[in-house]
């Protein structure tokens, strides 16, 4: 019984250490990219809509009247298509009534992308 308790204790200690670990064995020399989410990263913002128009990503998000594009961290993963995730890093503490939210805009250049690069948004929709 003592061995079982020690084994369970070791598993409990090791689990958090292995949670971001990826083991990959490839004899074919394939390229593998692994994106590990930071434990302290804010969650992906639930957005109302997103579209690509006139060389820019336009996103509608909730706002209390003070939301700006600079309030967001934009993660761009180099996949095909490119994957974009928006995370709010600054809360909107204003008290205005903005029932339709606000539109925020990032150009392809802002995102570090060539114009017309295929992309998709990973954020959940509201």
Describe the structure.
The chain is of the alpha+beta class and 126 residues long. It has helices spanning 2-18, 108-111; strands at 49-53, 56-61, 72-77, 82-88, 102-107, 119-121. The strands form two sheets. Strands 1-2-5 form a three-stranded antiparallel beta sheet. Strand 3 (72-77) and strand 4 (82-88) form a beta hairpin. The longest helix is centred in the first third of the chain and has 17 residues, at 2-18.
Looking at this protein, list some descriptive labels.
3-stranded mixed β-sheet; 3-stranded antiparallel β-sheet; globular; 2 helices; alpha+beta
- Low-pLDDT stretches are 4-27, 31-36
Shape: globular
**Proportion in helices:** 10-25%
Biggest sheet record: 3 strands, antiparallel
Strand proportion, as a percent range, falls in 25-35%
**Cα radius of gyration in angstroms:** 20 Å
- Strand/helix succession: HEEEEEHE
Output mean pLDDT. Answer: 80
How are the strands ordered across the major sheet?
A: 1-2-5
How far the N terminus sits from the C terminus, by CA atoms, comes to: 50 Å
* Category from helices, strands and their pairing: alpha+beta
